[in-house]
Design brief:
With 327 residues, this protein is of the alpha+beta class. The chain has helices at 9-30, 64-73, 89-99, 140-156, 158-168, 171-185, 213-216, 260-274, 284-302, 320-326; strands spanning 48-49, 52-53, 106-107, 110-111, 135-139, 188-198, 201-211, 229-240, 246-255, 304-309, 314-318. The radius of gyration is 21 Å and the shape is elongated.
Amino acid sequence: MNYKLKARKGGCLVTFVVIVLIIVAIVVGGVTYVLNKTPDEIGLGGVSLGNDTVDGVGLGNVKISELWNLAKSLTKNAYTLDGNNLPTNEDKAAADKTAEVWNLGKKGDDVYYGKLFVQLEPVCDNALLTLAKSNYTLPETQLAYMFNVALNQFYADSKVITDLAQTAGNESLSQIVAPLKILQTLDASVCRMHFVADGDDVVLKLAVSVDISDYTGEVSIPFVTLADIVYADIDIKVNLSDEGRLQGTFSSVSVNGNNRDVSLKVLDAVFKLIATENDEPLTTAQISGYATEVVSYLFSRIGRIQNIDTASGTVKLVSVAEYAYSK
């Protein structure tokens, strides 16, 4: 099956938000108690949303009050990502200093972390680099910064990097080009990577931003200004493969701090609305899987993951030889 997104995905998202706002405004203007009802309960399940309906995209059984809360959170200044575990300027400087010996070069004034995508050898296994160091224990905040810069540099140089992958015969990179391009279409950036212990499990809390500023100007709502950035907090249960690679399973998502079940239904509805005609729509779980693949790949370009320490918020990456010795 093909999975595609329309180029004007932001416009469709904004249109969807506007439709929700209009429906709620009509309802609130009539009877306030209806906010605790679902669209199905008040006969709105058949309301058209593009080529589909409220029921068709899976929102018929969601309380209108919850849709309203999510819609309100998408207005300007209504939501700000909390500052916990976000990369600081000190983290960025420390990451750049660490990467100085990785021979990544520069892209403008920034370290060219995008070069990690096309490295055939992980940093920890590169013979020219391992003379200096064959293992790194890196704070998750520094890794989030590195990976976000790499991702956005890929967006800027996607054709160059894709061509290099094909020329060099980098099969691993070739396999994640499609996920990378999906993230590029969504204009997704990594804001935070935070590993937490959850019983016997380890959960990666990945905060991602989507910039819709190019599209918000297309819509005019009296007394309402839509936000330029939308945030998704994605929880992914992770484990390590026998080769020290990160693997993950989507657990839940929250959009701008809203209820996770509602956020999941709304995001899946949005992906249905923006799917190219005759193509299978993407799901939030698939998008999260793509993000996990990209994060896992970037980890693998530094080294094998020997340990994720949730207490200190660090990840230890080592060479193949050191990883094998530790097993």
